[in-house]
Amino acid sequence: MTKHIYLIDDDEGVRAALSALLSTMGWEVKAFSNGQIFLDNLTVTQPSCVLLDIRMPGKSGMTILETIQERDSSLPVIIMTGHGNVELCRRAFKGGALEFLTKPIDADVLIETISMALDQHEQALIAYKQQASYQQLFNQLSAREREVATLIIQGETSKQVAHILSISPRTVEAHRANIITKLEVNSLASLIHHYSYILPIIYPK
Length: 205
Description:
With 205 residues, the protein is of the alpha/beta class.
């Protein structure tokens, strides 16, 4: 699986040097002279990270960081700057940056940081795809099965579910058996483990 680095820096020399360095790691580097061009072409489907100069003409790095967070908060952003200070660093981390590096950047530190960012994003993409798969299965349940499944996932016993829904415990058990089959889990514990975190998505507050 190809991993992508989105390099945003207004300095052509920096773009050329970093592109050459990072390409030696087998990563696909896409370099942009300003943040707006990057945002206009932002489509992420593979493990990726953004290497962003924070001080640029036009849209500032902080503005770009904010927009990235709004569009896809799972996409790691590594901030670069030649004029770092504590306040700027604080703002970057508060804005969602993964790391803050001061130029000139040590090559080993940069590669290690990017590797960490790519691994983090790869895991986020895997989790997202798995979540989408679980949600699709959950949506195939009948309305009553969703009610029963939701109560079970929230920790209610079969007897409590029967009382809440005004149905018999035997009916609850029948629904539970169907739920476990349809959701492709092999136990109640597995049902709770895999599906508890998607309830806020299905039933947002």
